[in-house]
Batch of 2 targets.
Target 1
Amino acid sequence: MAKFMDVHHGMAGITEEQLRTAHRADLAIQADEGVTFEQAWADPESGHVYCLSEAPSKEAVQRIHERAGHPADEVHPVPLIV
Amino acid sequence: MAKFMDVHHGMAGITEEQLRTAHRADLAIQADEGVTFEQAWADPESGHVYCLSEAPSKEAVQRIHERAGHPADEVHPVPLIV
C-alpha cells in the first residue's frame, strides 16, 4: 500500500455539496480496489481538487475515480511525507 | 485564517532528508506571517511537492516559502474539505 495525491482540474464552481457527493461516490466503491480515500480539498475558484488516498497502485485510484464518474487528471504516488 | 494547498514543480529526485530540511526551514519562520504548515507530500518521480497550510492569505504562504528558498509554483485556497 502507498499514499497517492490525485488532482482534478476544471472543477471551477464546485460546491461543498458536490464535493461531498463525489467523495461519497468514491467511498461507496473504494473497497473493490483496496483504496481508502482519506481527504479531499477543493478550490472552487481555480477548479482544482486534491484527493489523498492509500491504495495498492495509482491505477487502482484511477479506476475508482473513473467508475465514480470523475476521472483524475493526475495521480501521483507521494512516498515522502513530513 | 484559511486552508491552502501549494504545489512545487520540478523537484524530481527530492529525498526524504531534503523534504524534511525544506519543511523545517518553513516551520522556523512561519510564525512571522501567521502561517502554519501542516503537512507536505512529495513525489520524487514527477517532482511534485504538495504542502497543506493554514494561513491568513496565499501571499503569506508564498512569502514564507520564498524566504525559505523554495517559492511555490501554485498556491490555492482550499475552502472546501471533506
Target 2
Amino acid sequence: MRVKKLRDLMEKEALDYVILSPGSNTFYLTGFFEEQMERPLFLIISKDDEFFLAPKLYEEQLEKTKIATISYEDGENPYSKLTLKTGSSIGVDDQLWSVFLIQIINNFKPSKIIEASKMLRKLRAIKDEQEISTMKEGIKIAEKSFLQFLDYVTEGIPECKLANILEEKFIENGADGYSFKTILTSGPNTSMPHLRCTDRKINRNEPIIVDFGVKYKNYSTDTTRVVSIGNVSEDVKKVYEIVKEAQISAENGEENMTAMKIDSLAREKITMAGYGKFFIHRTGHGIGIDVHEDPYISQDNLERVTNGMIFTVEPGIYVPGKFGIRIEDMVFMEKRGKPLNSLEKNIFIV
Amino acid sequence: MRVKKLRDLMEKEALDYVILSPGSNTFYLTGFFEEQMERPLFLIISKDDEFFLAPKLYEEQLEKTKIATISYEDGENPYSKLTLKTGSSIGVDDQLWSVFLIQIINNFKPSKIIEASKMLRKLRAIKDEQEISTMKEGIKIAEKSFLQFLDYVTEGIPECKLANILEEKFIENGADGYSFKTILTSGPNTSMPHLRCTDRKINRNEPIIVDFGVKYKNYSTDTTRVVSIGNVSEDVKKVYEIVKEAQISAENGEENMTAMKIDSLAREKITMAGYGKFFIHRTGHGIGIDVHEDPYISQDNLERVTNGMIFTVEPGIYVPGKFGIRIEDMVFMEKRGKPLNSLEKNIFIV
C-alpha cells in the first residue's frame, strides 16, 4: 500500500509529518483529486496516522477516501484545529503554496523542512500495471485527436484557433481535458520552445510545432510533432533529420543507464551536427499524474532510469529568429526504451 | 504604473525583495503569463530594480516584457546566478511552490518572510477600465455558451459528458478555455458544493447545479445556475426561493460595507428561514485574473468593499444526502452592487 511505503521512507528521513496539498501526490495516495485553492486542504501523514484538514464543504466528498477529516468552516482558523508537535521535522509537498508553508512555519516552528518529493518521487516514478494501461489509453485518445485535427490545418488559420480545435478533439474523444495548454507555433515563432500560441496566421511551407497532451483519469500525456502545409525548406529538413536521429537515439536508451547518459545520447547527435548551442533544454522528463515529474532526463541527473519508468524524449533545435524543430515521444523503460506513441516520426505534410 | 505602486507598498512593509512565481501576479505586473513549473522562474522586484530569473528557453519570449532576464540552462544551478542580500526581508508570491521557498530560505537565509499578497491583493482588488471591459466580454461568452448548452441537457446523459459540452461551447465562442473545471452535479450529488462531475446520468425533475466560468485574455468568470428537466419538487422549489432571496439581498450591498456585512445580508435570509447550518461556505469571493481573489465575502472579513471591486455573490443551501442549491452572479461595486450577469435568476426548466 502506497501510504505504508511512504511511511517507511519517512522513517529513513526521520520525519514526523508529511504535509501534502491537493494535487498529484494526494491523488496518488488517496484517489482524491482537487486543485489547490486559497482554502487550506492538507493530507497529513504521521508515523502512525493519516488525516485530512479540509474546508467543511469537502467533508461529504472526502468520506469516500475512508480517511478521517478534520474540517473547518469558512471564517474559522484552520490552523487552530491542527495539533502538530512544535519543533518537528516535516516534509512538505513541493507544490504546496508558500502562503500555507509560511503559516505552518509560524504556527508550528518546524525544526527541519524538506521536500516531500524526496520520498514520493521515488514511488511515483515507477508505474504499476494500472497506471501504464491508463496512460496508454490516454495516448490513444491524444493521437486519434491529433490525426483528426490535421484536416483543419489550412492556410490562414491563426495558431490559437488551431490549438483550440485540437483541444476540442481531446474532449470529443473522451479525454478529461488537456494536460497542459497546447503549444502550437508556426514559422519564426517555433524558435520559442515554450510559447503557447499567438494570433499569427499559418502560412504554407513553414514548420508548425504541435506539442500536446491530454489529461485522462488524472494521468497525463505529452507528445510533439511537426506539421507543414506543403514542403518545408531544405534548411528545415536538414535540422529535422538531425533532431529525429537524436530522438531515436535517446529513445533506445537502456535500463539502468543514468538519466544523464540518455540525455547525452540525444545531445551528442545534435552537437556533432554543429547545433549544440541551439539545443537549449533537457532531453525529457518523467510523466504520470503530472506532466513533468521524475525522472528528469537532463545533463546533470545521475539517477538511473529503471524498469517501469515512463518519460518523454524530446530533443529540439531552436535557431533564434528563424525556426525551431522538436520531436517528442513518451517512452516506457522495459529493459530498453520502448516508445508508447505510434504516430510516425516524419513531418506531417498536409 | 503597477510596479511603482507595488514598490511604494514594499517600502511601507520595509521589504527588500518581492519574489513572484509565474501566474496571476506576474501577469498583472508584466503581461507575461505562464503556469508554474518545476523549473524556477521568478520575477524579482527590489527597491530600485526588477528582473526575471528564468530558464534559457524563455529568454526570447521574455524579451517582449522589456524586463531584464537572468537566464540559466537546464543543468545549471539557478540559485547560484542570483545575488540577493543574505538576511533580507522578502515578500513571496502566495502561490510560489514550497520547493522554491525552501531553496530561497536555504540559499539566502531571509530574516523575514511575508506573503506578497499583503501588498498585491490591494492593487488587484480594484479593477481598471480595461480589466472591467475584458471581464464583461468574458461573461458574455460564458452566458452565450450556457444558453447554447441548455439544448443538450437531456434525460440519461452523464454529468461529465454535459460538463464537457459546456466547455466545448466556451472555446467555440472565443474563450481561451475554462477558468476552473466545471462543476456539474445532479440529484443527490448537488449536496456536495465542490464535487466536479461524475458518470451519474441526469434524471427528470431533479436539480442540476452548473457552476462554470471561462478564461478570457487571462481573466476569469464564475457563475452558477440551476437547471432541471421538467419541474422540481416542492422541497427544492422552497429552498430555491430562499437562496434566490439571499443572493439578491447580498448583491444589493453598498459601497464601503464590510465584506462581513455583505456576507450577512445573504446569511441572515437563509438563517431566518431555518437553513443556516446548511449554508456551509462563504457568500462569495473577488474575481479577476484568478477565479478566487480579494475581497473574500466571508463572515470574518472586516475589509470594506469599495468602488471598482468585482466579486461573486453565491449563497447556497446543501442538505446532505438530499440536494443542494446555489445561485451565483458576478457583481461590480459602483456605489452599490451591480450584477454583471444577465442570465435570469430562476431555475432553467428545459
